Amino acid sequence: MKVDRLLCIASLVCAFGASHALADLTTLPMRETPIPRTTDGVPHIQIGVEPVPGISEALLKRVAGLPGVQIKPTVVSLSGALGFWISEDQALARPEVIVGGREFAHIHPDGSLHASLSPALAEMATETGWAVSHPWADQRPGWDGFVMIFTPMNTAELDVVFDLVEASYGFVTGLGSSSN
Questions:
Q1: Strand order of the sheet with strand 103-107?
Q2: Which residue, 26, 59, 66, 158, has most beta carbons within 10 Å?
Q3: pLDDT for 13 beyond 70
Q4: Which of 160, 105, 80, 106 has the alpha carbon at shortest distance from 128?
Q5: Chain-wide mean pLDDT for the chain?
Q6: pLDDT band at 27, cuts 50/70/90?
Q7: Which of 144, 162, 150 has the alpha carbon at shortest distance from 38?
Q8: Backbone angle region of 80, left / alpha / beta, with phi > 0 → left and psi within -120 to 50 → alpha
């Protein structure tokens, strides 16, 4: 999937606004597809996972619809990854959980994501097979909810992964009820 095409899709969606309310996650279903292996260090990536291009595009389309979010090249991840940036006019409730700039999360070329979740939601996402803690999550104040969310492989997984991204946005901005 080409970065230019994804940026174009994201720009179009930004123009039309968000259509989904912020997620209020009190439970998560168990992930049904196998939990990918990941590296133990940085770069923190999945091993042997191929994304489903249509699912990754749909996720970017949804993320670009979040209020004040832009999809731009990442400043903290691998080449080809796209960052989810919160606009300068949006207040941040928890700036300490952002890894770089105003990039609250990013998607890797393999479809996995890094995002900051509330510690309780990060634990729930890990226990239900949706995420794994980042290797540096315990090395910086405020990063205890920093996780890799695994690549969504179908539309049901896309819905859960987008809910997690929405919860990350809510946690970082303080908007909605997703700041568990």
A1: 69-73, 82-86, 103-107, 113-116, 146-149, 131-133
A2: 66
A3: no
A4: 160
A5: 84
A6: confident
A7: 150
A8: left
Q: Is 166 left (phi over 0), alpha (psi -120 to 50) or beta?
A: alpha
| Other Cβ atoms within 10 Å of 89 Cβ, number | 6
H helix runs in the chain, sequence order: 3-16, 53-64, 119-127, 155-173
Query: Using N-to-C axis directions, what is the helix angle for 155-173 and 119-127, rounded to 10°?
Result: 160
Measure the N-to-C terminal CA separation of the chain; round to a whole number of Å: 34
Provide the token pair at 121.
């939601």
Q: What type of residue is 81?
A: A
* Residue whose pair of structure tokens reads 């990060």 in the numeric block: 122
SS3 at position 82: strand
Handedness of CA 58, 63, 64, 66 (dihedral sign): positive
Please check whether residue 77 is in contact with residue 99, taking contact to mean a CB–CB distance below 8 angstroms. no
Does position 5 have pLDDT exceeding 70, yes or no?
no
Decide which of 3 and 49 is more confident.
49
Residue whose C-alpha is closest to residue 126's, from 159, 98, 149: 149
Residue closest to 57 by CA, chosen among 173, 162, 170: 162
